[in-house]
UniProtKB/TrEMBL annotation:
Residues 17-155 form the Glycosyltransferase family 28 N-terminal domain. This is UDP-N-acetylglucosamine--N-acetylmuramyl-(pentapeptide) pyrophosphoryl-undecaprenol N-acetylglucosamine transferase. Cell wall formation. Catalyzes the transfer of a GlcNAc subunit on undecaprenyl-pyrophosphoryl-MurNAc-pentapeptide (lipid intermediate I) to form undecaprenyl-pyrophosphoryl-MurNAc-(pentapeptide)GlcNAc (lipid intermediate II). Its EC number is 2.4.1.227. UDP-N-acetyl-alpha-D-glucosamine binds at residues 24-26, 178, 208, 303. It comes from the Bacteria. Keywords: Cell cycle, Cell division, Cell membrane, Cell shape, Cell wall biogenesis/degradation, Glycosyltransferase, Membrane, Peptidoglycan synthesis, Transferase. Its main location: membrane. It comes from Paenibacillus glycinis. Residues 201-354 form the Glycosyl transferase family 28 C-terminal domain. It is a peripheral membrane protein. Pathway: Cell wall biogenesis; peptidoglycan biosynthesis. It is found in: Cell membrane.
């Protein structure tokens, strides 16, 4: 924990904002986009998350953001011995968050959700610090549903989400996309991945943690896939497969950071899970997508709804996990490639009006009250 966690007299400049959110990158990347923007407007940003989660690693890559780890428990939907211990961990987290927030005295808390955010929201509420929540999925996650009564506003990415948010707190702002993603260079992407110009590149991204189902489908079909495409496969931590290393036109990486903009720029199509941040990034960059949403058995089914909304808008092909045969997979990708221009023209009709600016305005407003 940083040493400068000292009380700060109210009214002293700059204003301080406490961010939280974690568990997977999808609960952090919105914060990664907002933090530099708010810092440039004079805010002092601090972060509260778990001691060992991905949020800690991702926030460490930013300048001037002090990180405060707290105890946290997972909100599981399945039976597990940890379920007995976790309520105690969450209670400890609430206590830690309460004390830290009393010390740090932020003007406002911005929560991107994920299980680690619940103690922080409660700690803020107990200190009477205004809370703004962000929900990027079509239906709210469990953490955000628990946090809703303690929040002033809930910013949402999908228009359809407004009706799922209780208390009339929803504000439809649209997707928050990291600015650097818009500045990719196709040439650099090809050079970095050592792929060739002229043959279409498909980027495979199974969400921030990777997806075994997608990884297996891609690797099983490599001989067929590499006839038509080159592949950049972001397969998730611990999911590299050394037996595919020499395959011509195939590159695999566990997770990429600053290379992602260039890799996206050189990709014609994307195969992905249907995590909300990822698919809105692909939409913003006009990348036709083949989506394989996480099944209801393994989640609350939010990705199925995210994917269905994009399918209706004509941005993607969708295959449910149980439909993921080799024939269906290759067929859907071939259709996507054939339809890529029409899909891109539909995507071009979709313009979002400064979502990050709308959130900044809500943050300013909440911090004044
Ligand atoms: C298994 C699980 O619980 N998944 C949830 C999680 O997904 P997940 O954490 O995968 O979230 P998203 O797909 O929304 O976002 C992933 C983020 O990681 C980034 N990225 C990914 C790979 C990489 O190599 N480099 C990189 O920077 C992407 O650009 C994106 O910004 O949060 C999403 C948003 O609430 C939900 O929709 C998902 O259902």
């Amino acid at each position: 924990m940083p040493n400068d966690a000292l009380p700060r007299p109210r009214g002293e400049k700059p204003r301080r904002i406490l961010f939280t959110g974690g568990g997977s990158a999808g609960h952090v990347t919105v914060n990664l986009a907002l933090i530099p923007m708010l810092q440039s407007q004079g805010w002092n940003a601090v972060y509260m998350g778990s001691g060992g989660g991905i949020e800690k690693q991702l926030i460490a890559r930013l300048d001037d953001v002090d990180y405060y780890p707290i105890s946290t428990g997972k909100l599981r939907r399945y039976l597990d011995l940890q379920n007995v211990k976790d309520p105690f961990r969450v209670a400890k987290g609430v206590f830690q968050a309460f004390r830290l927030i009393r010390k740090l005295r932020p003007d406002v808390v911005f929560s991107k959700g994920g299980f680690v955010s619940v103690p922080v929201v409660l700690g803020a509420w107990l200190n009477r610090v205004p809370v703004i929540i962000h929900e990027s999925d079509l239906t709210p996650g469990l953490a955000n549903r628990i946090a809703n009564p303690f929040a002033r506003k809930v910013c949402v990415t999908f228009g359809e989400t407004v009706e799922h948010i209780k208390g009339g707190k929803a504000v439809h702002v649209g997707p928050i996309v990291r600015r650097e993603l818009l500045r990719g260079s196709a040439l650099k992407g090809l050079q970095w991945s050592k792929l060739l110009p002229g043959k279409p590149v498909v980027l495979v991204m199974g969400g921030s943690l990777g997806s075994r189902r997608i990884n297996e489908a891609v690797r099983r079909n490599l001989p067929e896939l590499t006839k038509a495409y080159q592949l950049i496969h972001l397969c998730g931590k611990g999911e590299l497969d050394a037996t595919c290393d020499g395959v011509r036109g195939y590159r695999q990486y566990e997770y990429v950071h600053e290379e992602l903009p260039d890799l996206l720029a050189c990709s014609e199509l994307v195969i992905s899970r249907a995590g909300s941040n990822s698919i809105f990034e692909f939409l913003t960059l006009r990348k036709p997508m083949l989506l394989v949403p996480l099944s209801k058995g393994a989640s609350r089914g939010d990705q199925i709804l995210n994917a269905e909304s994009f399918r209706k808008a004509g941005y993607c092909e969708v295959l449910q996990e149980e439909e993921l045969t080799d024939e269906a997979f290759l067929g859907a990708l071939a259709r996507l490639y054939a339809d890529r221009e029409i899909i891109r023209s539909r995507m071009r009709q979709n313009e979002f009006k400064d979502p990050a600016g709308s959130i900044a305005a809500l943050i300013q407003e909440a911090s004044r009250k």
